[in-house]
Amino acid sequence: MLDVLAFVIMLPFHRSQPRTDQSAMRELMAGFDTRGVKVVTDHPRCREATLEGLYVRGSREVVVCQRGDQSNTLRHEGWHLVQTLCLGSTPWLTTEEIERGLTAQDRKELVVFVRRNSWPREAEARVMAQLKPKPFFEEVDRACSTRLQTGI
After folding, report:
1. Cα dihedral angle (134, 123, 43, 136), rounded to 10 degrees?
2. What is the pLDDT of residue 152?
3. What pTM was estimated for this model as a whole?
4. How many CB atoms lie within 10 A of CB 3?
5. Overall number of domains in the chain
6. Could you tell me the CA-to-CA distances from 102 to 4, 44, 64, 119 in Å, in that order?
7. 70-103 tens-digit pLDDT
8. Which domain holds residue 47?
């Protein structure tokens, strides 16, 4: 059985449909490609109406479904890849940084939909997803050193 982390927008916390920043998306796709990470936009799980993306643990593949803010989803799921392949069980952000970075919407969703033991990883991924591509990849590179470039 595959261990999957998925970014799902659940009702009743329905967000308005944000537009994907296409420039950021191109920059993110190129950045992940440079680091040996495959971004898949056509995956069978994308048929699930509320699924925006996922990361299959242990792989070098991130799935981004063609809905919602795809650039945000790519950063979010990409950070789950970093957490698994580079950080292990070590958090990257402090509790204070996470608390400052979470949106009110994220807080509501975390409380209702995320198991408490998964909360730190999910909250951290939500905060990291808010970064612009350049600072996002600076953090990825700091967290992973040469691991993503050398094929973990």
Report:
1. 10
2. 45
3. 0.83
4. 9
5. 1
6. 23, 30, 22, 12
7. 999 999 999 999 999 999 889 999 999 999 999 9
8. 20-140
